Amino acid sequence: MEIAIQNLTKYYGSFCAVDSVSFSFSSGKLTAIVGRNGSGKTTTIRSLLGLVPMDGGEIIINGNTTGLNLKRVGYLAEERGLFPKETIQNQLQFFARLKGMTVKDANRSIDHWLERLEIPQYKKSTLESLSKGNQQKIQMIASLLHDPDIVLFDEPFSGLDPVNMQMVIDLLGDLRKAGKCILVSSHQLPLIEQVCEDICIIDHAKSVYWGPLDALKAMYGESCVRFCVTDQKIPDTIAAVPTAPNQYKVRLGTPENPDLHAFLRKIVDAGLSLETLERSQKSLQEIFLELVGEEEQADA
């Protein structure tokens, strides 16, 4: 399955929340849509779902403009959409029935997903008795109970500790292997970098990049060297940026360090003793900040 968003445009009055954004995502692949607050990510997902009407553009599914079959979509919204005083089992049954499942199939799926996300002990608990992270897991289960073909996760890592973030990364990998058509929006760029193949970056309602993550890194992520020394002073001529005690980063391709050979020559000439040396590219977060800056604004 392939879902293509072509020239999506959405206005709220005179304010353009999404301005001619185009990208696609397909089965067996994880695609991310990222941008700072207010860039238009959530509005794009809501338009894709038909929750807000588009003012321009098309949603094309396998070459047709028929629209999504919402019973085959698993949508995790950024905001909580569950019942705080209802038990986990009852409300998951409710959401499963809305997707057309029988009670028997719903209960089987509920038990499977509670075990998969390591929270079977909360089946009879009310939502309000759970931690924020476990509430997020329940909302995630509600979106996956009916075995959807299309998975749309808006900020799936919200409220999770590092252990449960890794659990979600593993879950996304399993969904990808199962051939699901996955689109994820998140502010957690180091996590997105671990899981996505394709990425759409939106800034001020416009797409500033769409394509493979590897190609983005090749285009914008100039090579750099990270190194650790014993307790020594680094000469200014090396133009090293401290990243931690005794740890530094140097960008290559600059007048100070045009290539790796020139950098290593300076290290030898300075008589520095290296404990570690690693050549790497910019991270997704570094590239993102270079592309869109650090300004914050209200969500859209």
Fold topology:
Blueprint: E1 2-12, E2 15-26, E3 29-34, H1 41-49, E4 56-61, E5 73-76, H2 88-98, H3 103-116, H4 132-144, E6 150-154, H5 162-177, E7 181-185, H6 189-195, E8 198-203, E9 206-212, H7 213-220, E10 223-229, E11 241-244, E12 247-251, H8 260-270, E13 274-281, H9 284-292
Parallel strand pairs: 3-7, 3-8, 5-6, 6-7
Antiparallel strand pairs: 1-2, 1-4, 8-9, 10-12, 10-13, 11-12
Helix pairs in contact: 2-3, 2-4
Describe this structure in words.
The chain has 300 residues and is α/β, with parallel strands linked by helices. Helix content is 33%, strand content 29%. It has helices at residues 41-49, 88-98, 103-116, 132-144, 162-177, 189-195, 213-220, 260-270, 284-292; strands at residues 2-12, 15-26, 29-34, 56-61, 73-76, 150-154, 181-185, 198-203, 206-212, 223-229, 241-244, 247-251, 274-281. A hairpin with a 2-residue loop joins strand 8 (198-203) and strand 9. Helix 2 (88-98) packs parallel to helix 4 (132-144).
Poorly predicted regions are 296-300
Q: How many helix segments?
A: 9
* Rg computed from alpha carbons, rounded to a whole number of angstroms: 23 Å
Averaged pLDDT: 92
Oligomeric state of the chains in view: single chain
Give the strand line-up of the largest sheet. 5-6-7-3-8-9
Major pleated sheet:
6 strands, mixed
Percent range for helical residues? 25-40%
Which descriptor suits the 3D outline?
globular
- Bin the strand percentage: 25-35%
Give me the count of strands.
Answer: 13
Could you spell the SSE succession in H and E letters?
A: EEEHEEHHHEHEHEEHEEEHEH
